[in-house]
Q: What sequence folds into this?
């Protein structure tokens, strides 16, 4: 999609809510937003919608539309902590359709490098999404630096079917299955913003960066907003335990996201995350 690019001068400042500092181990904010700029300054929304009406759920126009809407929203972004992402990938989903409440309807999740790999073994840089409540459709796309992976789906229908791919069930050679895998990661991140709001940053500090020797070369950047910046994987050491119940090897005790009954007569439901545990067994 790079040949569509019509980025104007100063596009980064014009497109984003605020410029953000680079983070080690993550693609730069400017480069991630560059994928959005290539679309946002080059297409018209009504033309994309016409193409969407005749395209498949995995068509290129799904990617184009998601990127356009992210640009329209000024590229709101969250950086995902590596340990949190790893833990969510080791957590099963078990929820009903009415439990998906959108903390953000449009945005970007910037992922740590070399955690989620595409079928070509390239690192997925970011997931871009837009949820349109008027027609109940979710549009998302992800980029590995070369290829886009995307899907649109009607939230209520798909949530009732609980169509999620767990990490160990995915054949990464099949793009359709990989799309399901990415979708399950994305939905886990949306859900964790709801059930664990303490993991989500709400403000960031401004930092003045000197880009040269002259005073007028200084520029204000912001620290990134994080999901799970300080989250750490829970572990349990059983290597010293004796008897027949000692764990023979390192393994995950899987977690899960589910609606848990509570209140009088256990008639109410709340979304909870039972975190996975990395069990350290015998060497």
A:
């Amino acid at each position: 999609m790079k040949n569509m690019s019509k980025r104007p001068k100063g596009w980064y400042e014009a497109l984003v809510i605020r410029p953000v500092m680079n983070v080690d181990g993550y693609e730069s904010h400017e480069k991630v937003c560059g994928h959005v700029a290539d679309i946002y300054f080059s297409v018209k929304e009504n033309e994309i919608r016409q193409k969407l009406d005749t395209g498949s759920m995995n068509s290129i126009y799904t990617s184009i539309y998601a990127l356009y809407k992210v640009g329209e929203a000024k590229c709101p972004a969250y950086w995902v902590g590596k340990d949190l992402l790893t833990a969510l990938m080791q957590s099963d989903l078990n929820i009903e359709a009415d439990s998906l409440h959108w903390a953000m309807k449009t945005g970007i999740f910037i992922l740590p490098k070399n955690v989620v790999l595409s079928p070509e073994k390239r690192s997925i840089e970011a997931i871009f999404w837009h949820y349109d409540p008027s027609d109940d459709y979710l549009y998302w796309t992800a980029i590995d630096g070369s290829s886009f992976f995307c899907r649109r789906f009607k939230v209520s229908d798909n949530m009732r079917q609980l169509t999620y791919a767990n990490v160990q069930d995915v054949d990464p050679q099949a793009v359709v299955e990989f799309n399901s895998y990415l979708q399950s990661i994305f939905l886990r991140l949306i859900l964790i913003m709801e059930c664990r709001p303490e993991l989500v940053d709400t403000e960031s500090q401004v930092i003045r960066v000197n880009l040269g020797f002259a005073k007028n070369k200084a520029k204000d950047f912001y620290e990134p907003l994080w999901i799970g910046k300080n989250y750490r994987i829970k572990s349990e050491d059983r290597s010293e335990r004796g008897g027949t119940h000692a764990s023979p090897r390192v393994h995950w005790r899987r977690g899960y996201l589910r609606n848990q009954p509570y209140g009088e007569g256990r008639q109410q439901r709340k979304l909870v995350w039972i975190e996975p545990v990395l069990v350290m067994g015998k060497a």
Notes: The two ends are 49 Å apart (CA to CA). The chain is about 25% helix and 25% strand. Residues 2-199 form one domain.
